[in-house]
Design brief:
Elements (H helix, E strand, L loop, with lengths): L3 E4 L2 E4 L2 E2 H8 L3 E5 H14 L5 E6 L6 H10 L2 E4 L2 H9 L7 E3 L6 H9 L4 E4 L2 H13 L4 E8 L21 E2 L3 H9 L4 E7 L10 H19 L6 E3 L6 E2 L4 E2 L2 H12 L5 E4 L3 H4 L3 E12 L4 E5 L8 H5 L5 E3 L8 E6 L8 E8 L7 E4 L20 E6 L2 E6 L4 H5 L10
Parallel strand pairs: 4-22, 5-6, 5-15, 6-7, 7-8, 8-9, 9-10, 9-11, 11-12, 12-15, 17-19
Antiparallel strand pairs: 1-2, 2-3, 4-16, 13-14, 16-17, 16-21, 18-21, 19-20, 22-23
Length: 418
């Protein structure tokens, strides 16, 4: 599905030279392939088409407005976790009824904003949140659709920082609490129960955790129905992962077959929130070599991309393939690919096979289309990487690089200090 390939030894994206893009837009630079995003979306949509399915792209993976507009044009809704993401989804043309609002800490202001636009569904994650929704909806004369996010106490067997389905995490409501809370919603007079939701984590590469969680979810849903409550939908979440070492996403056809087997003959509307699976392989971070430096035990390749541009290696010990944009021939030595930020943890890759590299050479950090640019910062007063989206062989600057002056303008010195 990736839009990246080598032509005459040089990396390209949808036919465009990455060298040319770096010359035109500078580095560090995120580059996305619209064709790869489109292809991934179609593959996912087709895989889950054996049931009554609706896809809501998880904005936390990549919230660039151009990427969101592309996905909206393909038919995707939005899965959001903040009021800011709600504004992004609306700005990208996603209709309010196609937005699902998840997250454990929605404020009163965010909940009211969601109710006022007629949001499609709020996934409530605690009894206190249900209380807040009832209070706000009653006092402001709103009617809203709410699903309960269930914590099924299932181990997703993923990184501890992105596992959300165990009972010792902050996410969701215990299975035991759900029946009484669901009935309270149904009897509130201001909530239309939308069903149940589950999301057990991210970067899941096997089907067993999904099957375990979904069995628990559907058993609870059937119990609620037997008690006379309406459970129209099941939001099955996201989490399908990508093998960063090979660039291959988890097998979506098998995922879809599991969905069909478990839900194809059941009368539930199903929701899905893929994020990483749609965009990770469609993006790369371009970075330029500043210096190379030999140390007693290794070589350092110091580049202009840093942890403020791509924090996943530092935050999650995540692995990204790193490839020279130009073909430099045989690999010559092991090297750490590091940035200029004043932290030992500022690296993009450790102990990598690299050819002889020199100042000005370009490297591409692959599988960077999800949880890359969206987590940028200006740490060390470094202007974050810009973003480019390639559509039909033409590059579009979709997030310009800020200048240092732009960053300084965000601060104000009080008059008393002048």
């Amino acid at each position: 599905m990736s839009g990246f390939s080598r032509v005459n030894g040089h990396l390209t994206v949808d036919g465009l030279s990455l060298n040319d893009l770096a010359d035109e837009f500078g580095t560090p630079l995120y580059v996305y392939s619209a064709a790869a995003i489109t292809d991934a979306y179609h593959h996912f949509r087709d895989a889950v088409s054996g049931a009554d399915s609706h896809i809501h792209f998880a904005l936390k993976a990549n919230s660039n407005l151009a990427v969101l507009k592309l996905l909206a044009n393909l038919g995707a809704g939005a899965d959001i976790v903040s009021g800011g993401e709600m504004e992004r989804a609306l700005a990208a043309g996603i209709a309010p009824e196609n937005i699902i609002f998840s997250g454990v800490g929605k404020t009163d202001a965010e909940l009211l904003a969601a109710m006022s636009i007629g949001i499609g569904q709020i996934n409530a994650e605690s009894p206190a949140e249900v209380d807040a929704i009832i209070r706000l909806a009653t006092s402001h004369h709103h009617q809203c659709r709410v699903a309960l996010r269930v914590n099924p106490n299932v181990d997703a067997k993923t990184h501890a920082k992105i596992a959300t389905g165990k009972s010792d995490t902050k996410f969701g409501i215990s299975m035991d609490e759900c029946p009484g809370l669901y009935r309270r919603m149904a009897e509130s007079g201001v909530i239309t129960p939308a069903g149940l939701a589950v999301h057990i984590g991210s970067q899941i590469m096997t089907l067993e955790p999904f099957e375990n969680a979904w069995h628990n979810l559907v058993d609870l849903a059937e119990d609620l129905r037997q008690s006379g409550l309406d459970v129209p939908g099941l939001d099955l979440g996201g989490g399908l992962g990508v093998d960063y070492a090979t660039g291959q996403p988890a097998e979506v056809a098998a995922f879809g077959a599991l969905v069909t087997r478990l839900f194809g003959n059941r009368k539930f509307s199903l929701g899905f929130e893929p994020g990483r699976w749609i965009t990770a392989e469609a993006g790369a971070l371009l970075t330029q070599v500043i210096y190379t430096k030999d140390a007693p035990s290794k070589q350092f390749v110091i580049v202009d991309g840093a942890m403020n541009d791509l924090i996943r290696p530092t935050l999650y010990e995540a692995y990204h393939r790193i490839e020279p944009v130009a073909d430099h021939g045989a690999m010559a030595k092991k090297a750490d690919i590091v940035g200029p930020v004043c932290e030992t943890g500022d690296y993009l890759g450790l102990d990598r096979d690299m050819p002889e590299l020199s100042t000005g050479d370009l490297l591409a950090v692959m599988s960077a289309g999800a949880y890359g640019a969206v987590m940028r910062s200006s740490y060390n007063t470094r202007p974050p990487a810009a973003e480019v989206l390639v559509i039909d062989g033409e590059a579009h600057l979709v997030s310009p690089r800020q200048s240092v002056a732009d960053l300084l303008a965000l601060d104000t010195i009080p008059a008393v200090l002048r």
